Amino acid sequence: VPISPATRRILSITYAESSDLIASRTFNDQLDSAGYTVVAARTDDRTTSDEYVAIRRLADSADVVVASVYVSPREFSGSIGAKSGFSSLIAALAASGKPLIAISFGSPYVLNYIPEVPAYLLAWGGTPLSQRAAAAGLLGMNPITGKLPISLPPYHALGAGIERARTAPSR
C-alpha cells in the first residue's frame, strides 16, 4: 500500500449483505476514475462454490486483488466465518502470491476470518465518504495514518498502525 503506479487491472471483490446496495460503488468508481481497469465481483452468504471458482479465475488476470468487506459490528451477527466461502477464497488468493489487500468497511475484527492477507486497512464504515477516503489512501492520493483504538489479538496490539505519506502527484 499504496498500489503501484504500474498496476493496470484491479479485481475488486466485495463481501456485503445483499441488502447493502452502496457497498463498493463509490470505492470502485474512484479506482476507475483514477485510470485503472476495475473488474468487480460481489459475494455474500449466498455465493456458491462455483461462483467462488469463477472469481478465483478472474484473479488470475488481475495485477492486484482488493477485497472489501462490509460487515458491521453487531452482537450475534455480522460474521464472515465458515458459513461462506469468502474466507477460503481469500486464503487461496493469499497463498497464490497475487498482490492482495483487504479493507474492512466496518468491523475491524474481520481480520480474524482472513488472517492470511498481507495488507489490511480499516475504513471503519461503508459510507461513500469512507469509500472515497479508502480509495484515495490506497492510490497514494492521501496519506495513510492511524492507530488502532482496540487490539486485534493475536495480530495487532492496541495502538498499532502504519504511516504512509502521500505518494501520488496532485491531480
Description:
This protein is α/β, with parallel strands linked by helices and 171 residues long. The protein is 25% helix and 18% strand. The protein is built from four helices and five strands, in the order βαβαβαββα. Strands 2-1-3-4-5 form a five-stranded parallel sheet, with helices on both faces. Helix 2 (49-60) packs parallel to helix 3.
Strand segment tally: 5
Overall body shape:
globular
* Sheet with most strands: strand arrangement: 2-1-3-4-5
Strand content: 15-25%
Cα end-to-end separation: 19 Å
**Main sheet: strands, sense, barrel:** 5 strands, parallel
Contiguous runs where pLDDT drops below 50 for at least 5 residues = none
The chain-level structural class is: alpha/beta
Order of helices and strands: EHEHEHEEH
- Rg result: 15 Å
Please, what is the average pLDDT? 88
Helical content stands at 25-40%
The number of helical elements comes to 4
Based on the model shown, name its key terms.
five-stranded parallel β-sheet; alpha/beta; 4 helices; 18% strand; 5 strands; 171 residues
Q: In summary, what is this structure?
A:
It contains four helices and five strands; from the N terminus they run βαβαβαββα. With 171 residues, the chain is α/β, with parallel strands linked by helices.
Blueprint (SSEs and pairs):
Blueprint: E1 9-16, H1 25-33, E2 37-43, H2 49-60, E3 64-70, H3 86-96, E4 100-104, E5 119-122, H4 128-138
Parallel strand pairs: 1-2, 1-3, 3-4, 4-5
